[in-house]
Structures are given as C-alpha cells and as structure tokens.
Please model this.
Amino acid sequence: MTDLAKPITNQRWTNAGKYTTLLVIVCGSLWLLLANLGNQYLWQDEAQTALVSKTILTYGVPRGYDGKNSFSQQTGDEYGDNYIWRWHTWLPFYVLAGFYKIFGVSTFVSRLPFALFGFGTVMVTYFFAKELWSDSRIPLIAAGLLAISVPFLLLCRQCRYYSAAMFFSVLSLYAYVLLHRKKYATLILFVSSTLLFHSQHFYVAVLFAAILLHACIFRRDRLITLLVVIVVTMLINAPWLIWLSGMKYHQQQYNMFDFLSVVGFIRTYCVDVTRYVFPLWLLAVLLIVALAGRLKTKGSCSQTLQSWEKVLLLVFFVAFNIIIIASIAPAPFFRYIAPSIPPLIILIAVIIDAAARVHFMIAAAVVVLLLATGQLKDFLYEITHDFNGPIEGIVRYLNERGSPDDIVAITYGDMPLKFYTNMRVIGGLTGEDLEPAKNARWVIVRKYTICSEDTKVKKYLLNNIEWHRYRRIVLDCPDTPWENKEDPDKHYFRTSIYESRVVIHKRID
Model:
C-alpha cells in the first residue's frame, strides 16, 4: 500500500465509523422515544392539551369547553370570550389536531408529534454541535448523550409543548451560528424563533437575550442582522403578545418578579440541573482535564477565545432560561427549563471530548459514571413493561359500567376522564359550580390533593354527598397523586405496589 493510499483508507474508515455511529443514534433515539408510547394513560396536563386540541376539529380554534366539559385547571382563567384558549400559544394544539385528523384519537397519537419533535431535537443538536466543533467527536457524543438522557426522554414522551420548545430553541441557536456564512440562516432564525414563540412564547425572550449578549461580546458583525430579525419577529407576533398579555392570573399563585421567590426558584433549578442533567463533579473533571491539557500542549490565545465563544453561547442560553423562567413561573417545575437540556448535554460532550484528548480512559470513566448515576436502567424497564396507574383503572371501570349520560364528580384527575370517557365530569381545578355533584352517579375522592382548589372540591364532596346512597368500590390500581408526571423526581418508572387502592363510589339506584 502506498503512503498516499493510507490516509485515504483511514479517512474512509473514519467517515464510515461516524456514519455508523450516527445511524445507531438515530435508530436508538427513535426506539427510546416511541417504544411503549401509548401504554400509560395521559395524566392531567397531557389530557388538557389533548382535549383542547380536539376542539379544533370541531370549532377550528382551540377552546376550553366542548359543550359538556370545561378544560380549565385555573378556575376558568385560561380562556376568554367564547371559551377561546389563551393560556398557551396555539402551535402544539394545531399540530396535534392535525395528527388526530390523519391518524385518529388515541393515547399513542396524542404523544406521537411531541416524540417526533424530540427526535428532531436530537438531530438538530448534532448539526448545531457540528457547526461549533466540526473536527471533533463532540457532535456525535452530544447527540448520543441527548438520545439517552432520561429527563429529555420523559419530557419528549409527553403530550405537551416541551419537545417543540426544545426543538425550535436549538434550531434557532443553530441558525444564529450560521449567520456568518449562510444567507438562508437569517430566514431560518426568523422562522424558528417565530415557531418557538408559538410553541411557548416565554422562551423567545430567553433565546433573544442569549444571542444578543453573545453577539455584543463576540460577534458584533452579526448584530445588525440579529436586531433586524428580532424586531421583525416581535412586530409580526405583537398582536399575539398583546392578546396573551390580557391573561388573568391568580395573584396568590403568581408572585412574578418577587425577589425572594425568584432567588428560591433559581436555587431549585440549579439543584435540579446538577441532580439530573449536569452533575457538579463534571466541573472537577473539567479542571483536571484543563490542567493536564495545558501541560501537554500550549494553546494559542485565538484558540482559547474561540473556545470561550462557543461555550459561552450555551452558558448564556442556560443562564437566561433559568433566570427568566424563575422570574415568571408559578412554581419551579423542572419542565420549564426543558430547552436548557440540549445545551447542557453539549457542554458535557465538550468535557468528555477534552477528557478523551488527555486519555481515553478518563472519558470512558466519565461516561460510565454518568450512566451509573442516571435513571436509564429504570427508564428501560418502563418502556419494556406494562404500567398501571389510577386513571387507567378508573377509566376502564367507568367505560365498562357507566354510560355517556352519567355525571362523575372527582377531586383531581378530571381531565383524563373527560378525554377517555364521554361523561360529564365535575370537579378538579375547573372552579365550576359543584351543585350537580350532589346527584352524581359516580363520586371519586382521591387520596391526594394537589392544590387548594381540589382541596375545596374534596371538602365539598365529603360534606354534601349523601354517602348512604352510595356503594363503595375498591379498584385494583394504586391511588398515586397522578397517572405519571414528567418531572424526574416525581416520575413512576413502574407500577406502584405500595400505595393504597383507588376507591370510587357508585350511587345506588
């Protein structure tokens, strides 16, 4: 073999290895996102998204009432005149309505478009990281780690806007870094940021704050183009922003911009990030690798500046996500910082790649430790086994023994019942008049209450139902607070065997 042929052969093998690894990531990501996707019933928030989306098929616009049931979880604050929905922007509802129109209404279809947004996020994360670090293993490492990130997978397997927000956030960041060399990048940034606005409008503020700060420090040549895109995006979406600003909020629940609350929320978010996505010990690895790398080679000032430029774009986005959301969120739910997960995963990939440059075993140890301290084993169990929650048990019993004319009174979990049955469901967090509950055929007082509103419903039912007219029925399903949430610290990876059973009451005719 000639000397000339050797590098060509090695390059072919290198490219073959990259493409093979990427193919494995693609197939693995699809399986992890889609496997057993319809097994678990929708929980409260998911069912709300599904119910509002279904109204588009009838009315053409998302509504919070279908003529029989209310879909509110804020005592009616989510909608305005004619029950038009204004709590969230509408893109996720229309996407899901389109899937319902094509594939029919089911649990699997309810989650399918959001799982596909998750897959798209893995792919665009790869290309985004490749644009930043083209001649390294970082893009493949980032895509691979994101594909097996359990917090990411849990969010993407929800019938909710989280994966769409992640996808359009990363796509917008990708478009931003392309501005200097691709003419179409300006259009992509405008379109993706607009779609991000209509996925969940708060995240546009996160995006624009991060890339503006980054451009002011590192890329002033992009500043004018960037400002034009931001201004045009805000002007086009201004009517929506004005309309959304008229939303009513419970003042006792939304202490926006309260300093102590914001500080507390930031602390909670930082703890969650280090607990589930970016463990603190990675900083120690980074320090060791940086010191070892400086001893082995001396990088130029320009290379150091380029590295900081790339890393700080990701850091700025994560920081603004935490700070802005902490300032406006009703509670420090992990799901609100979902768009930060891909950038954090890329930062982990940067550390692993740097470790591999010092010694392969250091990088391997980091990966093994990440897997050992994560929840992947539990997640794999979940997607390969059956799961039974309280909603599944209740829905099956009501559909087998009830009729569409029945009235059901329940303290919490009303949204899934409205999705899976055709019954009139009263209670939950709708704030509706509970008078019809006195003659409900089915009364369900859940073991747990979630907030003050369903506590009021529980108190009303206990004090006003003529219990001697009802027969107590114990179902063979655990009375957990919800069917299954997406937050890593509250998610059930297997059917609970320790909770007491769900109890429902049937009126004696």
